[in-house]
């Protein structure tokens, strides 16, 4: 291989390794945000193993970044050991990313059953800031701008609503565009129109989609890397790239 051609392949390797860093950053942030989301809404979840896609995404991100640094270092020096280690890391990354994507897709189709305890948490609402269920409900309604499980009418069936004299819903249901809102049910237009179940599903599904689509992106980047490293290996007697006869 000529020096110019070898230099070209090393430039491609450097550029593709930078893509690995970018993909690793996106996958890592997705895993971190999913873990954060799951921890904040743990009372609404029926199973804890939904955290597996997030943990695998973080592990995959770590391997992606490590592979990117190793590949960039490989472009600056010639080493058969580093080439073999780089290929091994790429295989590890692909296995981790595929597993994370498969689990993320599986959980994205089961979100209805995953957040089944949501109704029970709303039923146990007391309005006390010291009570975990009540704090979780108020925080969720404010952050996601939602009211009730499906809509504000879910509050009409709760024991808390009956105790308040059947006049109002929690103030966290009030739409922020209406400063005068006090939660009375005779002014429903001042309350958030959507329920928290659909908002939670949208929030989880949005993050899971980044993990799901991470796998095909990693696959495409790794194809380029495998072809590039294969061309660089041709220069070394320790490796033989088999050609079809």
Describe this structure in words.
This protein is mostly helical and 245 residues long. The chain is 64% helix and 0% strand. It is elongated, with a radius of gyration of 26 Å. It starts with a helix and ends in a 12-residue tail after the last helix.
Q: In brief, what are we looking at here?
A:
Helix content is 64%, strand content 0%. With 245 residues, it is mainly α.
Task: Name the descriptors.
mainly alpha
State the secondary-structure class: mainly alpha
- The fraction of residues assigned to DSSP E strands is under 5%
Mean pLDDT: 85
Q: Measure the end-to-end span.
A: 20 Å
Task: Give a quick account of the main beta sheet: strands, pairing sense, barrel closure.
Answer: none
Rg over alpha carbons: 26 Å
Q: What portion of residues is helical?
A: 55-70%
Low-confidence stretches: none
- Principal-axis shape: elongated
Topology:
Blueprint: H1 3-40, H2 52-74, H3 80-108, H4 111-114, H5 118-123, H6 132-144, H7 159-163, H8 196-233
